[in-house]
């Protein structure tokens, strides 16, 4: 008699919790790492920004390989705890590395490997839990996205607080500890995900394959450490990746069936717009955090009363907080207009998204007009992050939905990987943009740094306005292509 299928709720809870703790570890580390390089390791702004850009680019690229390992080599269910364990090791290494850049680069390489193995496979397990149940899977991924933001908020508030009281290494150790909790919970609840995974999970584990994966992981750590510390290598890789992404789209459009080409053209347009958005996104860990360090008044008052005191790194928590507040409202809005047949196309949502991103950066940019001794009120950060986060929900969060909607099913897996590589390119380019506000080491006057930061933010606001105009200009084209896609698909002969 076959075993009873696992409870969907218990299986989802197992993945939900390990994802929450994985984000706890990653977001806590991300909130501190640029500041760690600048304040503890003595790196200049330019070096720290570019190292962070190369690191995050590799973090976004690695899942394209990790997903294949989970699907074809080790099994999705097995790869998740392996990735989580390697990530915990990376945070542990950050907590014990002494002065010196190379051990830091190696720790970052371990994190890249762990993220590549964990991220795509955890999401893939959620999809497999509710495979064939579209209504449930939409709800599940909404809750899953909530797990990301709950974990991020917790760690971005806690890790800097630990750093201020117990030091950098204790803060990174907290990131490791949180992920270990998630890993232990996953192993304890492992039976709840029996039967959920890729076909490789149902085969006996092949130790030679596991050994090859681990050997490859060690080699990848060395490669990442090399790329991170050589700007020319990183730039060359980004340039090649950009050409490859465009070549892939050109090939798919050229060789695709007639009814597929229109959808691929829409996807190309929206991928380029998403590419641009993540340049703005990268400012959160770079220029905005360094701005908060040097030019934001951490002690915030309202109506003459003290409200809160946040350190520079903790301002990044405003992003997940706003996302958790705005997501239900936005979901209700989509449903409300969708029921009346008035829901905007994704291209229209992208245009609105860039408009509110522009408002957010112009809030940051105009904050200098009311500065006192080079310090601006924290409320500019609160409201700037609010508009920026709404833009993220309208652009960044819809990127994968765009791939699912317009790219043919037979190409979707490949194009998902291409999408993440495109985001990786944006991460590095965003760090290059952040360097336009890098503060020379001989400048310590807040008045001088304020002018540099606000100039960058105003220019980014203008760039977002230009992106809005471009998105609006392209709306008729995307609408026509979308109608062509629907019409051509409906004209296809039935497969029954």
TrEMBL record:
Q: Which superkingdom, per the lineage?
A: Bacteria
PROSITE patterns in the cross-refs: MFS (PS50850), PTR2_1 (PS01022)
Q: Which UniProt keywords apply?
A: Cell membrane, Membrane, Peptide transport, Protein transport, Transmembrane, Transmembrane helix, Transport
Q: Is this entry keyworded Flavoprotein? A: no
Gene3D superfamilies named among the record's database cross-references: MFS general substrate transporter like domains
Cellular-component GO terms for this entry:
plasma membrane
Q: Which residues form the Major facilitator superfamily (MFS) profile domain?
A: 1-479
One GO term (biological process): tripeptide transmembrane transport
Query: Record's Pfam families?
Result: PTR2
Q: Report the main location listed first in the record.
A: membrane
User: For this UniProt entry, which segments traverse the membrane?
Assistant: 20-38, 50-70, 79-96, 139-162, 168-189, 210-228, 234-253, 265-293, 313-334, 346-365, 385-404, 416-436, 456-477
Provide any one GO MF term from the record. peptide:proton symporter activity
Where in or outside the cell?
Answer: Cell membrane
Record membrane topology? Multi-pass membrane protein
Q: What is this protein called?
A: MFS transporter
Q: What organism does the record attribute this protein to?
A: Pseudolysobacter antarcticus
**What's the source species' lineage?**
Bacteria, Pseudomonadati, Pseudomonadota, Gammaproteobacteria, Lysobacterales
């Amino acid at each position: 008699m076959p075993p009873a299928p696992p409870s969907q709720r218990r299986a989802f809870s197992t993945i939900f919790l390990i994802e929450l703790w994985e984000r706890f570890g990653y977001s806590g580390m991300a909130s501190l790492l640029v500041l760690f390089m600048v304040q503890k390791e003595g790196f200049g702004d330019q070096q720290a920004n570019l190292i962070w850009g190369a690191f995050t680019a590799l973090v976004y690229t690695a899942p394209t390989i990790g997903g294949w390992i989970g699907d074809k080599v080790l099994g999705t269910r097995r790869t998740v705890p392996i990735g989580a364990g390697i990530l915990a090791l990376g945070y542990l290494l950050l907590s014990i590395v002494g002065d010196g850049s190379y051990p830091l680069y190696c720790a970052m390489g371990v994190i890249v490997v762990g993220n590549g193995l964990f991220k795509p496979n955890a999401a893939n397990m959620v999809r497999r839990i509710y495979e064939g149940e579209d209504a449930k899977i939409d709800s599940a991924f909404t809750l899953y996205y909530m797990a990301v933001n709950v974990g991020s908020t917790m760690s971005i508030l806690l890790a800097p607080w630990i750093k201020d009281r117990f030091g950098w290494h204790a803060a990174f150790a907290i990131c490791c500890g949180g992920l270990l909790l998630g890993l232990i919970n996953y192993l304890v609840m492992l039976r709840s995900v029996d039967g959920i995974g890729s076909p490789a999970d149902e085969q006996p584990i092949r130790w030679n394959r596991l050994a090859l994966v681990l050997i490859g992981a060690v080699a990848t750590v060395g490669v990442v450490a090399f790329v991170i510390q050589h700007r020319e290598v990183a730039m060359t890789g980004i340039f090649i990746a950009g050409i490859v992404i465009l070549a892939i789209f050109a090939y798919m459009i050229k060789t695709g069936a007639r009814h597929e080409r229109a959808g691929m053209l829409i996807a190309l347009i929206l991928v380029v717009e998403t590419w641009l958005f993540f340049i703005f996104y990268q400012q959160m860990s770079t220029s905005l955090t360094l701005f908060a360090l040097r030019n934001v008044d951490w002690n915030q008052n309202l109506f003459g009363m003290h409200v809160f005191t946040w350190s520079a790194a903790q301002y990044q928590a405003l992003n997940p907080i706003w996302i958790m507040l705005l997501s239900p409202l936005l979901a209700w809005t989509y449903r409300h207009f969708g029921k009346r047949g008035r829901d905007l196309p994704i291209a229209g949502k992208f245009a609105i998204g860039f408009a509110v991103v522009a408002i957010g950066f112009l809030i940051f940019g105009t904050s200098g007009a009311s500065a006192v001794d080079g310090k601006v009120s924290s409320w500019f950060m609160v409201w700037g992050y609010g508009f920026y986060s709404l833009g993220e929900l309208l652009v960044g969060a819809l990127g994968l939905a765009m791939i699912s909607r317009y790219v043919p099913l037979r190409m979707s897996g490949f194009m998902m990987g291409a999408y993440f590589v495109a985001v990786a390119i944006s991460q590095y380019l965003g760090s290059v943009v952040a360097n336009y506000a890098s503060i020379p080491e001989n400048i310590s006057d807040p008045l001088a740094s304020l002018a540099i930061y606000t100039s960058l933010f105003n220019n980014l606001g203008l760039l977002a306005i230009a992106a809005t105009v471009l998105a609006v200009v392209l709306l008729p084209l995307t609408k026509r292509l979308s109608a062509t896609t629907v019409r051509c698909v409906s004209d296809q002969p039935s497969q029954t």
